[in-house]
Amino acid sequence: MLNFKQYEGLPKNASEAIEQCVLANRILANEGVLDGFGHVSVRNPENSKTFFQARSIAPEFVNKEDILEIDLEGNIVTNTNFRAYGERIIHASIYKYRTDVQAVFHGHPTEIIALSCLNIPIRSVAQYCGMFYEPLPFYDDYEPGCGMLIVTQKEGDRVARTLGNALGLVMRGHGCTVVGANVQQMVMNAIFLRDNAKIQYLALALGEPKYLSEQEGRETTKAQYSENSLGRCWNYWVARAKKAMPDLNF
Amino acid sequence: MLNFKQYEGLPKNASEAIEQCVLANRILANEGVLDGFGHVSVRNPENSKTFFQARSIAPEFVNKEDILEIDLEGNIVTNTNFRAYGERIIHASIYKYRTDVQAVFHGHPTEIIALSCLNIPIRSVAQYCGMFYEPLPFYDDYEPGCGMLIVTQKEGDRVARTLGNALGLVMRGHGCTVVGANVQQMVMNAIFLRDNAKIQYLALALGEPKYLSEQEGRETTKAQYSENSLGRCWNYWVARAKKAMPDLNF
Amino acid sequence: MLNFKQYEGLPKNASEAIEQCVLANRILANEGVLDGFGHVSVRNPENSKTFFQARSIAPEFVNKEDILEIDLEGNIVTNTNFRAYGERIIHASIYKYRTDVQAVFHGHPTEIIALSCLNIPIRSVAQYCGMFYEPLPFYDDYEPGCGMLIVTQKEGDRVARTLGNALGLVMRGHGCTVVGANVQQMVMNAIFLRDNAKIQYLALALGEPKYLSEQEGRETTKAQYSENSLGRCWNYWVARAKKAMPDLNF
Amino acid sequence: MLNFKQYEGLPKNASEAIEQCVLANRILANEGVLDGFGHVSVRNPENSKTFFQARSIAPEFVNKEDILEIDLEGNIVTNTNFRAYGERIIHASIYKYRTDVQAVFHGHPTEIIALSCLNIPIRSVAQYCGMFYEPLPFYDDYEPGCGMLIVTQKEGDRVARTLGNALGLVMRGHGCTVVGANVQQMVMNAIFLRDNAKIQYLALALGEPKYLSEQEGRETTKAQYSENSLGRCWNYWVARAKKAMPDLNF
Fold first, then answer.
1. Which residue of D has its CA nearest to C232?
2. Residues in B 2-41 with any Cβ partner in C closer than 8 A
3. Homologous superfamily of C9-119+133-183 in CATH?
4. Distance of CA D111 to CAs B205, C196, C213, D108, D128, Å?
5. What are phi and psi for residue D196, nearest 5 degrees?
6. How far is CA B119 from CA A195, B116, B135, B138, B177, in A?
7. Which pLDDT value is given to residue B7?
């Protein structure tokens, strides 16, 4: 019987935030949104000036002992020899500018890159992906010398400014960054942005789809972020990840 | 050796209906037609004014103890604290208007949403999907304030009227609803509607497909709903679900 | 270490033919070429007027005890209560007209149906699928009253005549039938026809592909049917099927 | 916890080269880049005039005892009855002309063949596939009589000359050949060439993508081949292969 305790909303302390961070890594790898690259993070509920993120390894194999604490300038707070992700500055900058954001995703789904290198804005075509009813902001202002990676404070801030108050942004030829008011929303946004990009791509190959109206978008977003809907999805994704990854033992 | 007893047609009592409801959930999740959302139901053979449906959890993990009894106004008959699906009213309204229907599916396959937001009618292009030889009715008359979800009695009735005597209907930007004269037909219709949408999509990207004629459609439907064909498919889907889901222990 | 004894070419007796028939069912299900429908057969090496084929169940679950012996008019020779596939007449008719054929496949891959309902001839675009260098014959002459299924002697003969000396034929809105000089060739032809249809489809969506020339086709066919190439593939497919299907215990 | 010792760069001796060759076979099969055909090789660190490659079996099942030593004319140095791959001459010729190359891949991914038979040059559209910023050379000069296979010294040399100093080349209707300065780079190049072809294909179906500039390509290549990035990917791919293939016991 599916255990409803798995869904708990915002973490009450650092330990719960670390567990949610591990689960987000595992879920997004298991659902095909993350592969060898990409990363997620969760703001520290005990100190809003730091966040939790895995060391530089593939999300599919992240465990609690791989999680580092990082501050909003991207400095590693944890006393460790582990290497952090180069692009942790994306997360740091967003947490600095967006006090409403408690979790961040950055990844490279195939359909999102395809639409990004055509500069086609991603926008809701499906009810269950209704949170993207406003076209996502687009980033193509890469710092020369960084290999299209966001690794400097300056570019991290530029990405955060491009994001503005949106749910995410698309980066040309690179992928996307998505935020959430909690880990569950961030995971939902990451999976459903990929799903919407796929459906939108299919529709665009045959014609011009009818996008969700602003009113439809607002209403579906509220429905999707309700405890009923978000909790059902989260429990589902956790149960699937645990079934596929028996080494995840909490 | 494949056990042919698994196919039994209409349930003889409530207990069998609940088992078939669980199997339909598992099969449709295992075949990729249902994911975190979507739901199925089976009319109660002991009381045609109620039906069985899982509580609000993902179909992949439904077990017998998750099944609720619901009446045709959408009231939960079972004495329980479990939450029901918000869109159970789709099922309730259809059972009210369509006395021939014993099972209902509602879900959101990718290709069906893509075609729906272009308002391209789904119609049989493949022999094995011949039951959709008449283009499915199309619904785009969402109640303001409900987030494109069918949750009011009034809209449930509108959906049922749009369905009319058809096998299913397509809902713009949302998905589809499919019915059956028994659970096995409903499961076949749900899987093959998805398959037909995929093949039709592929064909439309290159040209104008030759659809099945009305005569071809009528004949293939009869063949597909025969005990030989439907029983073979049902046994196959059950065997695959049981292999992939060892926790399903009946 | 991969066991090279698995590849043995033509069966020496009925018992080996039955084993190869089971393996072909399992391989083609495991490689995604067969699902709930479709069937394969192997000519009886002890009696060229009969062939072996599973009873009417899904190929993924076929075992030795499910194999029937059938004659070239489609009569079931085995003393059994099992039901045979309705379309066994396709196999019977081909064995009657084509003495060079020792194994037959009939199935419904997605991409083949999509191309078939556009009447786009399938033809080799890939070296490893070079055996289809002559466009496959096309069948769209269904007998009224049979639901686009080939179930009468008369239509079986018509299908066999359309096939002529070709490796296979495409049936509009239905699927394909493929033959082989032995089971291994039939399995290779079935998998690679599906693969070629997929690659050809992808190419046609962007432009006009360069097809293999007749000379290229002849040469690649010879190379693919060599013991080295065919044996390597067969051993690979058997090993994969056995890994995925532990119930297959010979 | 993910074991970082798995990434070791260039093999120190023949024994390590053989292990890396086995891992490359398993990884590329597990990631869907190799199937029944295709092959990889690793130059012998103890003798730059020979290289290691599996006997003629499917990559998914290669073990250490299947690895042969072959010289740069394609002669089998190992004292064995095993058969070598016919196309080993591709590898031999490249090792002869390209002293910087320590590992070679040859395979047939679907999307690469599709683009190849349209003669559409493959070129970086994604940051993580930035190493292909210069369009790959194209080969369509097959030796008559060889079935589009590269099996003669003369044609092996012609392929090597077409490759020139590039990272790989595309062969019309056949597939691709990719090289690396070490096994890890070769594996990354093989997987990401397939990925880039897929994303580029998707983009081309809707419009004209913005390709990576030369500067972007140079920078991303440097980032991708860094120990941090390449090591993370290699460890990820090894861990996934070991999880999926329990028979790989080193």
1. D57
2. 2
3. Class II aldolase/adducin N-terminal domain (3.40.225.10)
4. 17, 12, 21, 9, 18
5. -65, -40
6. 19, 5, 11, 8, 16
7. 58
Q: Is the pLDDT of residue A12 over 60?
A: yes
- Contacts A112 to D, Cβ<8 Å: none
Cα D98 to Cα D69: distance, rounded to the nearest angstrom: 18
Q: Which two tokens stand for residue A217?
A: 């978008």
ipTM exceeds 0.90, yes or no: yes
Of C208, C212, C239, the CB nearest to D173: C212
Tell me the C-alpha to C-alpha distance, in Å, between residue C215 and each of C193, C218, D128, D147: 19, 5, 40, 8
User: To 5 degrees, how large is the angle CA B43–CA B47–CA B50?
Assistant: 50
Give residue-wise pLDDT tens across range B137-185: 999 999 999 999 999 999 999 999 999 999 999 999 999 999 999 999 9
The CATH code for residues D4-243 is: 3.40.225.10
Residue B105 tokens, joined: 């599916």
Please judge whether D57 and C236 are an interchain contact, meaning their C-beta atoms are less than 8 angstroms apart.
yes
The angle, 0 to 180 degrees and rounded to 10, between the axes of the packed helices A14-30 and A227-244 is 70
Number of other residues whose CB lies within 10 A of the CB of residue B224:
23
Cβ pair B244, B60 in contact under 8 A = no
CA B143/CA B139 separation, integer angstroms = 11
Query: What residues contact residue B233 under an 8 Å CB cut-off, 6+ apart?
Result: B184, B188, C36, C37, C58
Rounded CA-CA distance D244/A28 in Å is 19
Q: Is the pLDDT of residue C5 over 80?
A: no
Give chain A as a 3 state SS string.
Answer: CCCHHHCCCCCCCHHHHHHHHHHHHHHHHHCCCCCCCCEEEEECCCCCCEEEEEECCCHHHCCHHHEEEEECCCCECCCCCCCECCCHHHHHHHHHHCCCCCEEEEECCHHHHHHHCCCCCCCCCCHHHHHHCCCCCEECCCCCCCCCCCCCHHHHHHHHHHHCCCCEEEECCCEEEEEECCHHHHHHHHHHHHHHHHHHHHHHCCCCCCCCCHHHHHHHHHHHCCHHHHHHHHHHHHHHHHHHCCCCCC
Question: Is the pLDDT score of D212 beyond 80?
Answer: yes
The token pair at D166 is 């590039």
Over residues D17-32, the mean pLDDT reads 98
pTM of the model: 0.97
> What's the mean pLDDT in A97-105?
97
Size of interface A-D (CB pairs under 8 A): 106
- Among C22, C60, C113, the strongest candidate for a mutation testing the B interface, having the largest count of B CBs within 10 A, is C113
For residue B123, the number of C-alpha atoms closer than 13 Å in the C-beta half-sphere is 18
E strand spans, chain B: 39-43, 50-54, 67-71, 103-107, 138-139, 168-171, 175-180
The hierarchical CATH code for the domain B4-244 is 3.40.225.10
A170: confidence class by pLDDT, cuts 50, 70, 90 = very high
Burial degree of B141 (CB within 10 A; 0-12, 13-18, 19+)? exposed
What is the pLDDT of chain B when averaged over all its residues? 95
Residue B8: its pLDDT value, please?
64
- Do residues C65 and C2 touch, judged by C-beta distance below 8 A? no
Q: Quick check: helix, strand or coil at residue B242? A: helix
Whether C228 and D66 lie within 8 Å, measured CB to CB: no
Homologous superfamily in CATH for domain A9-244: Class II aldolase/adducin N-terminal domain (3.40.225.10)
- pLDDT, position C3: 47
Going by C-alpha positions, the residue among A199, A130, A139 that lies closest to residue A173 is: A139
Q: Is B212 on the interface with C (CB under 8 A)?
A: yes
Under DSSP, the state recorded for D121 is P
Residue D142 confidence (pLDDT) above 80: yes
Q: What is the pLDDT of residue D4?
A: 42
